[in-house]
Amino acid sequence: MKVILTEEIRGLGTRGDVVSVKDGYARNYLFPKNLAREATTGNLKQIEHERRKWTVLAQQEKDAAQKAADSVKGIKIVVQKRVGEHGQLFGSVTANEIADALEAKGVNVDKRRIELAHPIKNTGLHDVEVRLHKDVAAHIQVEVQAIGVEKLEETPEAAAAPAGK
After folding, report:
1. Cβ atoms of 64 and 26 closer than 8 Å
2. Alpha-carbon dihedral sign for residues 11, 15, 18, 24
């Protein structure tokens, strides 16, 4: 089915693009969320008028994203996590934790905008990309600090005891 996108969808296209998608995806996801319209001649004419508004709106969004990127750029945040004996984290640092740390510094960033190239599973300094717009990205540094080192050794009594009792 051919549809006209009314919002930018990552991996599919931007506003005003005419794309082919499966019927179920269009009916069950795109249409109910007002992310697309069916590509009829009437809708194509209407979209042409709306494209003019979208270009102005897109420039405003890009300017706002650039301003936000300038405020985020160069920020270094600290996340404290529990670690094991060899410096490995219990779990990993999530985008949600990074967003909370940024918010504590007075910068409000949506957690879905924080892109982790790979899970952060050890202590130290890590570079993280914050994609605020499709053309605007900022890099921040995340320092992961250890809260406490857990010992993974067993006591001699526990090692000598039978496992089933």
Report:
1. no
2. positive
109 residue type, one letter: V
User: Cα separation of 134 and 145, whole Å?
Assistant: 31
On whether the CB atoms of residues 71 and 64 are closer than 8 A, the answer is no
pLDDT at 165: 47
SS3 track for the chain: CEEEECCCECCCECCCCEEECCHHHHHHHHCCCCCEEECCHHHHHHHHHHHHHHHHHHHHHHHHHHHHHHHHCCCEEEEEEEECCCCEEEEEECHHHHHHHHHHCCCCCCHHHEECCCCEEECEEEEEEEECCCCCEEEEEEEEEEEEECCCCCCHHHHHCCCCC
Q: What is the pLDDT of residues 105-118, one digit of tens each?
A: 888 888 888 888 88
Q: Which domains does the chain have, with CATH numbers?
A: 2-64 (3.40.5.10), 71-149 (3.10.430.100)
Task: Tell me if the pTM is above 0.70.
Answer: no
Residue 38 — very low, low, confident or very high, per pLDDT cuts 50/70/90? Answer: very high
* Parallel/antiparallel/unpaired status of strands 137-149 and 76-83: parallel
Q: Work out the burial of residue 83: count CB atoms within 10 Å of its CB; fewer than 13 is exposed, 13-18 middle, 19 or more buried.
A: buried
